[in-house]
């Protein structure tokens, strides 16, 4: 990231930006590439280094939530629409795997993993009518509609014959067990996560992503500039459903048995939304960070004392909204941007003069950061 | 045949008759002005033409084809661009990104998912236009940091990037400083020479009268007078609309 200085100028030229050369950008890119490489290596060797099943179980659940939050953020963070019904796709994926495996009498083994992409496709199919209905509304109404549709699905899973009601469905039992039981699940989860991040990153840089961001800022203006908002929103929504369906299926296979209340869990959406808000809505790294912090924490609370973690979650939600409304990543990004700008200010006089431009500088750094 | 025609357009919001019998023609290659007191229905008429409001009576035609009750997306794709009275830009995108949103006029959605935002030629075109309106050096700034006048200029540049044939400007000179108004008028004339047609709603009489080839006056949802600026300026009905009739004054005076 090149350093940019925001200085106040005359009327009609409020903001002026200066770049101090190309080198810092190249360095930042190098740092970023190295960080990505390190993250991938850590992701790959983690279960080999920390092979304790208790740890790899938490790691697996963390991957599930990192994927879900990233996918959710790929729609919610970019478009500004906050859906709270993605558990529908999680449940759809879980039931798809369970029902198909049962009907085909699939034996436990690696073959069952091939149902994971199928679960993603099922989530896609469900997301189209869901999106068509919910996306007719905006803002708070949209949130309420997604919650309502979620409860319809939960009710259906309790009552439809195909889901076998509250007795749930058993998934095939994998033939591998013991200390290595978690390993295949972990790696399939890791692959889905990497793909989801790639999609999220790619969307952010595509023209489609730009249109989505335009919708977030002013949907009606976007229409007036030729953005086919209905289509853009629906495509974004459907894309965000697919990875959630896939990890839902993976979760079902891992757990061994699914029930309506665990597959269609109302807390699922609260959790992924909190993770995204904590890390930074609309950034690529924020939701990952949020899930990385919160999911192990939740697992820890669940094991130590299950009655506390919901209270802790509620308290955390309040703290995030009050203290870090934009999330950790944008806040820290803005802070670093400000420090750099201050250090790069050529003279005290200019720094003093820049007082009018300083808030602009803050926002600028924040905007640039939030895109990463 | 006029490029853009509104014929007998009527619109009411509940019991309020916002537009009644509104007719207007904009000739290709002209700069048309639309004036009238606040609340006379100018912006409502813009909203109807550009697909933001629907009507039950009346017709809107573009190049002779009916576009009544179309959607904003479709109207824009046909080549009718507009700006808003209260400038509307994407505040959290950078200035140049704002421009790139509008360049996808003729692109399918699948292509838009797969392509990166803004090809080199689109970037160049966006920068040219930003230079044209005089804010090229702000290209990388977030649009939210622009001043009001700069936002107006960006709003105009955003519309221009898709190369529309008609541009509807809603109070382009409202709330911006005189120097910038001069620049704006100069740019509008230049674009008009290149063949762009304009329909401008504006309260700044000097701006309208010096710029427009033809001025239409609205009052209480009706188009009352239409003609060259000189004729309209001295028309009795226009003075009445802006200043109130003498009898009305007489009634209120004692």
Tags for this model:
heterodimer, A: 372 residues, mainly alpha, two-stranded antiparallel ribbon, 15 helices, 4 strands, disordered C terminus, B: 254 residues, alpha/beta, Rossmann fold, six-stranded mixed β-sheet, 10 strands
Strand arrangement, major sheet of chain B: 6-7-8-3-9-10
Run of helices and strands of chain A: EEHHHHHEHHHEHHHHHHH
Which segments of chain A are poorly predicted (pLDDT under 50) over 5 or more consecutive residues?
1-22, 347-372
Q: What characteristic shape of chain A results from the CA principal axes?
A: globular
End-to-end Cα distance of chain B:
51 Å
Question: Overall mean pLDDT score of chain B?
Answer: 81
Structural class designation of chain B: alpha/beta
Indicate the percent of residues in helices of chain A.
Answer: over 70%
Spatial strand order of the main sheet of chain A? 1-2
Radius of gyration of chain B: 19 Å
Instruction: Look up the CATH topology of the domain at 4-89 and 164-252 in chain B.
Output: Rossmann fold
- Compute the number of strand runs of chain A: 4
- Under CATH, the homologous superfamily of the domain at 4-89 and 164-252 in chain B reads P-loop containing nucleotide triphosphate hydrolases
The radius of gyration of chain A is 23 Å
Task: Report what the structure shows.
The complex is a heterodimer of chains A (372) and B (254). With 372 residues, chain A is mostly helical. Chain A has a domain at 54-266. Chain A is 73% helix and 4% strand. Chain A has helices at residues 23-49, 53-79, 87-103, 115-134, 139-159, 182-205, 207-224, 229-255, 260-263, 266-279, 285-304, 306-323, 328-344, 348-353, 358-370, and strands spanning 4-8, 15-19, 169-170, 257-258. In chain A, the strands form 2 sheets. A two-stranded antiparallel sheet of chain A has the order 1-2. In chain A, strands 3-4 form a two-stranded antiparallel sheet. The longest helix of chain A has 27 residues, at 23-49. The N and C termini of chain A lie close together (11 Å). The model of chain A is unreliable at 1-22 and 347-372 (pLDDT under 50). The radius of gyration of chain B is 19 Å and the shape is globular. Chain B contains 11 helices and 10 strands. Chain B is of the alpha/beta class. The model of chain B is unreliable at 247-254 (pLDDT under 50). Chain B has helices spanning 42-49, 72-78, 95-101, 109-114, 120-133, 148-160, 178-193, 205-211, 229-233, 236-243, 246-252; strands spanning 4-13, 16-26, 31-35, 57-62, 65-66, 80-82, 166-170, 197-201, 214-219, 222-227. Chain B has a domain at 4-89 and 164-252: P-loop containing nucleotide triphosphate hydrolases (Rossmann fold), CATH 3.40.50.300. Chains A and B meet through strand 2, helix 7, helix 8 and helix 15 of A and helix 2, helix 3, helix 4 and helix 6 of B.
